[in-house]
Amino acid sequence: MKALHPFVLLSLIFLLPLSIGSVDGYGHGEALHGDALALLSLKASLSCRPHVLRSWLPGNVASVCEWTGVRCAGGRVVSVDIANMNVSTGAPITAEVTGLAALASLSLAGNGIVGAVAVSALPELRYVNVSGNQLGGGLDGWDFPSLPSLEVFDAYDNNFSSSLPAGVTALPRLRYLDLGGNYFSGVIPASYGGMLALEYLSLNGNNLQGAIPPELGNLTSLRELYLGYYNAFDGGIPPELGRLRNLTMLDVSNCGLTGSIPSELGELASLDTLFLHTNQLTGEIPPELGNLTALTRLDLSNNALTGEVPSTLASLTSLRLLNLFLNRLHGPVPDFVAAMPRLETLQLFMNNLTGRVPAGLGASAALRLVDLSSNRLTGMIPEMLCSSGELHTAILMNNFLFGPIPGALGSCASLTRVRFGHNYLNGSIPAGFLYLPRLNLLELQNNLLSGPVPSNPSPTLTGSESQLAQLNLSNNLLSGPLPAALANLSALQTLLVSNNRLAGAVPPEVGELRLLVKLDLSGNELSGPIPEAIGRCGQLTYIDLSTNKLSGPIPEAIAGIRVLNYLNLSRNQLEESIPAAIGAMSSLTAADFSYNDLSGQLPDTGQLRYLNETAFAGNPRLCGPVLNRPCNISSDAGGSTAVSPRRATAGDYKLVFALGLLACSVIFAAAAVLRARSYPGGGPDGAWRFTAFHKVDFGIAEVIECMKDGNVVGRGGAGVVYAGRARSGGAIAVKRLNGGGRHDHGFRAEIRTLGSIRHRNIVRLLAFCTNDQEANVLVYEYMGGGSLGEVLHGKGGGFLAWDRRYRIALEAARGLCYLHHDCSPMIVHRDVKSNNILLGDGLEAHVADFGLAKFLRSGAGASECMSAVAGSYGYIAPGTYEHVSLHTHVLVFCL
After folding, report:
1. How many other C-beta atoms can be found within 10 angstroms of the C-beta atom of residue 436?
2. Ramachandran region of residue 221, left (φ > 0), alpha (ψ -120 to 50) or beta?
3. Were both Cys, which of 311, 352, 450, 747 would link to 776 (CB 3.0–4.6 Å)?
4. Where are the beta strands (DSSP E) in 656-775?
5. Which first-to-last residue range defines the signal peptide (predicted)?
6. What is the CATH number of the domain that holds 744?
7. What's the pTM?
8. Closest of 485, 484, 566 to residue 519, by C-alpha
9. Residue 703, domain extent
10. Angle made by CA atoms 570, 571, 572, in degrees to the nearest 5
11. Annotated catalytic residue within 744, 831, 841, 849
């Protein structure tokens, strides 16, 4: 054999790796080409928007490793991440991810994909994330046995609605499983207790039922377990969960659990967070929970726990959050809570706690939120409550606290919300308290505070720096003048200082409060004129200056407040006539001018003509048709007109009588025509009286026209609801109540409640009508979205995403919070259920149907007994039927 030339040999040595690489590259190239085709198939099945995944093109297969979201290794596609790229057009799709033999990671999260996606035959796949989509049905299309390497499966926040997939139990390496935020139903399979590699399991936010399987106690590698929220389990918490010694997070909140808290939970030595709130747990708090020394968050709120707070909890020195509110705990607030060095949030409100607030509270920890309200606590507010300088919320209302407000709170610059109302606090308001730079809400009403309303102690605080929006100092013993420094509170929306001993003039600086919506200075000793500057408060809807010593004329500038609904100037010493411009205000729905020294003819325009004559009582020199007191109309030499109700000639009486007779004839004729049009085949229904609570563009004619059988949209025990139209074409809802006015207590409660309420999450009562036959009719704003019950359970109900459900619950809670805390007297709805949550066109929530509303006056306790329990079965907190009492926290169960 001929020897190879050294150069040829050298060339072979160099070319051999190249040849081997070419062959290997050809093999990988073919496989990579197949991966590219699989990705193109996936793109086509996803019905992607045109502007996304532009690089995924058939003519660009050779560059597949450079495609958006694609990563390669070893000549194969190993990762596809197109999360949050908004790829979906919203059209339902059916997609399958397969044919990517080396794929290790797949993320389609946050794309809103509608339809079904299945994954199969991916032996190297370790990570899958399809969360934040709208995938429906079940997971039957997923071939889990063909995914033997899967370690992470995240399907949170979709529309899966079958039973929980059993196939996941065949994944030996599965460490992370999140099926929360879906519509999975049925029970948790006992076989889930066999996934021994699991470290994270979330099944919260589904429609699961049955008992929590004790087999979950076998998951000894588990670190986080979430089972709550919208699930409705039977029974209680399995004691076997106490075997999960590696557990750091246990959340079984809001899922209908009953029974007591197992003492075995005290064996979870690694536990950082324990959330058991919003269930129906009973019994005492186990003292064994004091063994959880690593615990930083403990929330047992909104249950029916009894007994005292166990002293063993003093061992929880790492605790940052302690929530025990809305239970039936008694005894004192333990002194050890004041010694917890890391405590930031302490909420114990609405229990039966007694004794003093620990004097050292706030001295040892950087407290941020303290709420001890609605207990039976006595003693004084701790001096060191804000010693850390980080306290932002302090709520101690509805207790029996006495003594002064600590002066240090007047310099607590971190405060944003303070609610100390309904106690027995005395002394003066600390200097600077009203003018703290971050303070948004300050309630000190119904105490025994005295002295002046403090002026701004810091001239450097300008109006632009103040954030105070709500200030309530009503029902105290405050004296002296209203300080002009209130003008610095430029963000103020509510100023309530009624029923004090304030004297002096209403400062004209009040006109600088351009965002003011509600002003109540009634029940004081204010004197002098009403300042013209009040007309600059263009956002005012409510003014009450009654029961003072105000004098002079009513300023015409009030008419410039275009949104004013309520005006009470009664029981003062006001003089001259009611300005015609105020009479012409179309926004005014309630007014009281009684018991002044007003004179002249009442304006016969605007809403004043609908007021009852009691609104003008005690003004003997007023005259006009509303008062059935004719005016003497005469002209002086200059041609001007004078009005006097005191003397009238016989000729004047004849003229007035003739004009009145003519006007009555026209009115009666119009009424007859109106009745004939509204009731073509029926008899008269009596004379109608119409009262508006808002500026409206309809009258009794439109209301009567609505009440036809063809317009019925709903019937209930209280009456019939009709859909109608105002003159402008806008939709209204007309509710004709069953029963007569003298016996329909629901009507009276609803009128009294809704007529004075202004809140974006409470349905607006626009007007009400009644007649001689005692027919009662309410006119509401129309809610185009129907009721929450219809949306969730009706035949035409559609899918309601979890984020939208959350927003609806939050908006309804805001409406209830307004009724419980911002209405005086407190209002309790007593029948909160899905059918009484109405939705606007944008699915915004409005609390409705106050026919069962109950007022809690200051003289009645929060547990005032009733002869019968109102509300709907299934929407009243358990125990309410046995213990016939009324608490605002009962409504938390309804939501």
Report:
1. 24
2. alpha
3. 747
4. 688-692, 712-715, 719-725, 731-737, 765-771
5. 1-25
6. 3.30.200.20
7. 0.70
8. 566
9. 687-782
10. 100
11. 831
